[in-house]
TrEMBL record:
One Pfam family per UniProt: MFS_1
Protein name: ACDE family multidrug resistance protein
Primary localization class, coarse: membrane
Places the protein is found: Cell membrane
Transmembrane segments annotated in the record for this chain: 44-63, 83-102, 114-136, 142-162, 169-187, 199-217, 245-267, 287-306, 318-337, 343-361, 382-402, 408-426
Keyword field: Membrane, Transmembrane, Transmembrane helix
Compositionally biased residues, Basic and acidic residues: 1-11
Disordered, as annotated region: 1-29
Xref: InterPro entries: MFS, MFS_dom, MFS_trans_sf, Tet-R_TetA/multi-R_MdtG-like, YfmO-like
Residue span(s) of domain Major facilitator superfamily (MFS) profile: 45-429
Length: 451
């Protein structure tokens, strides 16, 4: 072969390689653009579920601005009124452990509709109540419906959304954040008219969500020749906790939610007290605005910051960082208990950390095991909601017996335990600790979807 022939061959090989790389780059770029856009290009059924999720999560923060008003008008102590959170969250957590068993027998659509119907009935009944004990009981019934709906909705969105599981989780957490933001705002606005207003408002919105699911949602048809979906065991969630990764993440979320609901359920009381000491008028409307800002912060970081941070840093580093920052925020709340400005600003800033944590933990659970989605999500959600139920039950008595800042120090302690659990499970969650190599690699992974 002559030197000229060799040179020509090198030129041809180099040219072909460049062409191939260019084509691959164009294809990867197209995949990235598709993945990026797919979160907004979802089937109508996915948007219907997302809307219902938003309204469902509104129910968590809905009563926040009216807690002091309920205490005054129904002659109840703060400890008694905060049980509105405890009964709701505890029953939600317990029922979630069996939600996958229910949905495997009724089907996804019927389970979603049953959950929504129960919320409509018990939310309306709470609005008609004559005493705080009745409301606590109806909030427990509300929690049954909430559990059936939320546990099934997460699995349904992940299974039906385009763009893969990460996109679906971001959409789900966005619904959570928007619901947490709008809930206090609506609760504050309607609470200015009457403490009953927020309950009736939720019942009406949930009725609309029920109709939307009824009309547009279609359960996925089984593939030709495919076997019928296996029935889930009644004890599936308890057996799922034998999985070390799921157990670790569930316990981490358990203690994290203690801190979460100390902030959410207890904060209206010290804020109102500090504002009164400063000569400020702080009613349901003003509290609603504060927690609207908090919920908006949760929504923004769950959608915008969490995917970016987990892609660049990895899930475990993000979890450690955000748990630590939230612990600092709760310590600031404890130290600044007498300053309305410190409390308001810190509550809203804490929402930034909570949004990232919610998305990162949910993504970790969906990726950590090969368990069925409905079992994994129901088990994880059940354990974390039980953790959330503990906080309102102990925050009031703790504040009365020790000092108003004590509940926040409880939140700090719970977050330290959560960090310790996460650190002790280094090997178990090792595969979650690696950042994705590049944004393009992340997009390509998303574009492959979730089988």
């Amino acid at each position: 072969m002559t030197p000229t022939d060799s040179d020509e061959r090198k030129v041809r090989v180099t040219s072909a390689t460049k062409t191939e790389r260019s084509a691959t780059g164009d294809q990867t770029k197209a995949t990235a653009e598709t993945a990026k856009a797919s979160i907004w290009r979802q089937p109508v059924a996915v948007w219907a579920i997302a809307f219902a999720c938003t309204v469902s999560f509104m129910g968590i923060g809905l009563v926040d601005p009216i807690l002091p008003a309920i205490s005054r008008e129904l002659d109840a102590t703060p400890s008694e009124t905060m049980l509105l959170f405890t009964s709701y969250l505890f029953i939600t957590g317990i029922v979630m452990l069996f939600a996958s068993w229910v949905s495997s027998r009724l089907g996804v659509k019927k389970t979603l509709l049953l959950g929504l119907a129960l919320i409509v009935v018990f939310a309306a009944a709470a609005g008609l109540s004559g005493g705080v004990v009745e409301i606590i009981g109806f909030r427990a019934g509300w929690g049954i419906g909430n559990a059936l709906f939320i546990a099934t909705a997460l699995a349904a969105i992940v299974g039906a959304a385009s763009g893969g599981s990460r996109q679906a989780i971001v959409l789900y957490e966005a619904s959570l954040g928007i619901g947490l933001a709008v809930g206090p705002l609506l609760g504050g606005a309607l609470g200015e008219l009457s403490w009953r207003g927020p309950f009736f408002g939720t019942a009406a919105l949930m009725a609309i969500a029920l109709l939307a699911i009824l009309v547009v949602f279609r359960s996925p048809a089984p593939a030709a020749g495919a076997a019928a979906p296996a029935k889930v065991s009644l004890l599936a969630s308890f057996r799922a906790l034998r999985n070390p990764a799921l157990l670790t993440l569930s316990l981490t979320a358990f203690f994290y939610n203690v801190a979460f609901f100390v902030l959410l359920a207890y904060s209206p009381y010290p804020i109102e007290s500090a504002a009164a000491q400063a000569g400020m008028t702080f009613g349901a409307h003003e509290l609603g605005l504060v927690f609207f800002g908090w919920g908006l912060a949760v929504a923004l970081t769950s959608v915008l910051a969490a995917p970016l941070l987990t892609r660049r840093l990895g899930l475990r580093p993000v979890l450690f960082t955000m748990l630590g920052l939230l612990a600092v925020a709760e310590a600031v709340l404890a130290i600044g208990i007498d300053s309305a400005t410190v409390l308001i600003v810190t509550v809203i800033v804490a929402g930034l950390f909570l949004g990232v944590l919610n998305t990162a933990l949910t993504e970790a659970v969906m990726e950590a095991t090969d368990l069925p989605r409905n079992v994994a999500s129901g088990t994880y959600s059940g354990v974390r909601f039980i953790g959330g139920a503990i906080a309102p039950a102990v925050a009031g008595p703790l504040a009365a017996a020790i000092t108003p800042s004590a509940p926040y120090w409880l939140g700090v302690a719970a977050l330290v335990v959560a960090i310790a659990i996460l650190a002790a499970a280094g090997r178990t969650l090792r595969h979650l600790g690696r950042p994705h190599e590049t944004a393009i690699a992340e997009a390509a992974d998303i574009g492959q979807g979730d089988a």
